[in-house]
Amino acid sequence: xxxxxxxxxxxxxxxxxLEAIAEEVGTPVxxxxxxxxxxxxxxxxxxxxxxxxxxxxxxxxxxxxxxxxAILAREGLGADIxxxxxxxxxxxxxxxxxxxxxxGVGKTASEMAEALEGGLLQFNLESVQEAVTLSAVARxxxxxxxxxxxxxxxxxxxxxxxxxxxxADNKFGLPIGDAMDAFAMLRGLPNIDVTGVTxxxxxxxTSLEPLETAFRALGGLIDELRRQDFALRLADLGGGLGVPxxxxxxxxxxxxxxxxxxxxxxxxxxxxxxxxxxxxxxGNAGVLLTRVVxxxxxxxxxxxxVDAAMNDLMRPALxxxxxxxxxxxxxxxxxxxxxxxxxxxxxxxxxxxxxMDFAGEGELVVFRTAGAYGAAMSSGYNSxxxxxxVLVDGDRWALVRQRLDLAxxxxxxxxxxxxxxx
Length: 422
Ligand code: LLP
Hints:
Its EC number is 4.1.1.20. By secondary structure, this protein is of the alpha/beta class. It has 2 domains: 4-31 and 283-409, Lyase, Ornithine Decarboxylase, Chain A, domain 1 (Beta Barrel), CATH 2.40.37.10; 34-279, TIM Barrel, CATH 3.20.20. It is 28% helix and 25% strand. It has 12 helices and 21 strands. The protein has helices spanning 18-25, 34-47, 66-74, 84-92, 109-118, 128-141, 179-187, 209-227, 255-266, 279-282, 315-319, 406-409, and strands spanning 4-7, 10-13, 16-17, 29-33, 55-59, 78-81, 100-102, 122-125, 145-152, 174-175, 192-198, 234-236, 272-275, 286-296, 303-306, 325-327, 334-340, 349-357, 364-367, 389-393, 396-401. The strands form 3 sheets. Strands 4, 14, 15, 16, 17, 18, 19, 20 and 21 form a 9-stranded mixed sheet that branches. Strands 5-6-7-8-9-11-12-13 form an 8-stranded parallel beta barrel, surrounded by 5 helices. The chain starts with a strand and ends in a 13-residue tail after the last helix. Ligand LLP is lined by residues 59, 62, 80, 103, 163, 165, 200, 203-204, 238-240, 276-280, 315, 319, 372-373.
């Protein structure tokens, strides 16, 4: 459920008119609803309420806006981070060091050192080689690093290939068959404390089955580790639960169904559980608000050209992702159009042959479910500015990231040797 509704014929975010935001900030602009973010955080926590002290660590990569993180910190969420930039953002937002998990295959020694000094719950490591580096870093700092190994259970997640992470052809985790040997090696490394195991098989999962298969495989490994006297404390079950993207799209299981499955599968694990939801928390809490630049006639359907583009919302170009498109002031009948942005690539296409409410030149439309992996993945391609972000809370709103002209922000004077060159 989200808080984007029609009030007096016009789409609002909570009590705020999207037209008013577009008027003041310009378009395109991302708009987030604080009430929706809080609601999703609470729904996830309620779904896991029967577990003993679960940790919900928001996957910061989904939407790292400081205002978003601050709301989630207030809801008591921790953070799953994949870079030192995300670590700093989580800490600045008020997330406790003891609620931070550090994931990712390519952590550098300097990132490890900063996180270890600043404090964290656990490094989720993806290889023995990574553990060797961390051991040296920890020894130099005179500290002990809490670590989990990420297991790759070779389970097909049933989602888009580019967001599948738990098969043998993905770079992530250790093959489960190699796990016992890897754990044994970790035990021999100085300044390493083996605290847990972790698994994450992909994103936008619309069935619980692959998750259950992966968790059962992890359960088998936990048993074996116990028999070898590893004193594990935490099993991190990753993120990945899908969200509804709109009409005609797969309906994912509810967080409550997910929580019930987890409760069943992990009943006798005797470990604290952690979760890393990203999309579930922020996906439906945001829209990308854009204005129709013009309608160009087309061979099969007219081209509805909007002022947002693939640089603002990459998901359709990258994953053929569906984003529901709504008109801010509906009522002008229906139309079937190809919805595209101004970028000079054919991939800059949001939807082909989409039947939707009529929107004419100058009118506002939104791309729904843009709160996760939207602004987070934006770029300045075609010398387009980075799109600003707005947070709505009840009847108030604020700009929480300004429009950024990368070309001028990153510009430097030309090197002298380039002057006067013919
Ligand atoms: N934990 C780990 C280790 C991850 O790699 C991810 C996502 C998550 C948690 C959060 O997954 P979520 O709950 O959001 O599904 N850009 C893609 C999604 C990439 C997901 C990367 N990893 C998209 O727009 O669909």
